[in-house]
C-alpha cells in the first residue's frame, strides 16, 4: 500500500532533521520523509529550490504532505 510522503520545511536545517528523525521512528520507516531547511549558505531561512528538490525526492502516487514551521516557509513552498 502506498502512503503519502512528507516534506518538512523549516528555517532551521537542524530542526527539520530532528523532526524527520522523530517522524521516521514513529512511522517505523514506512513513510518517505525529506527535509528542506535553512539557506544554501547555512543560515536560518528557507530556499525555494531546496524545497522543490525535497518534494521531487519523495513524490509518489499518493502525493506529498508539506509541513512548515513558520508562515514565510509557506511562501517559499508556493514558489
In total, how many beta strands?
Answer: 3
Query: Given the helix and strand composition, which structural class is it?
Result: alpha/beta
Strand order of the largest sheet: 2-1-3
In the predicted model, the low-confidence regions spanning at least 5 consecutive residues are none
Distance between the termini: 31 Å
Task: State the helical fraction.
Answer: 40-55%
Tell me the number of structural domains. Answer: 1
- Overall geometry comes to globular
- In DSSP terms (H or I, runs of 4 or more residues), the helix count works out at 3
Oligomer: single chain
Return Rg in Å: 12 Å
The major sheet is characterized as: 3 strands, parallel
Mean pLDDT over the full residue set: 93
Q: Give the ordered list of helices and strands.
A: EHEHEH
Beta-strand content: 15-25%
Amino acid at each position: 500500500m502506498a502512503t503519502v510522503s512528507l516534506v518538512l520545511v523549516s528555517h532551521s536545517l537542524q530542526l527539520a532533521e530532528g523532526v524527520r528523525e522523530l517522524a521516521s521512528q514513529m512511522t517505523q520507516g514506512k513513510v518517505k520523509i525529506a527535509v528542506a531547511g535553512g539557506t544554501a549558505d547555512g543560515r536560518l531561512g528557507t530556499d525555494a529550490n531546496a524545497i522543490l528538490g525535497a518534494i521531487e525526492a519523495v513524490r509518489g502516487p499518493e502525493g506529498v504532505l508539506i509541513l512548515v514551521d513558520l508562515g514565510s516557509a509557506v511562501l517559499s513552498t508556493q514558489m
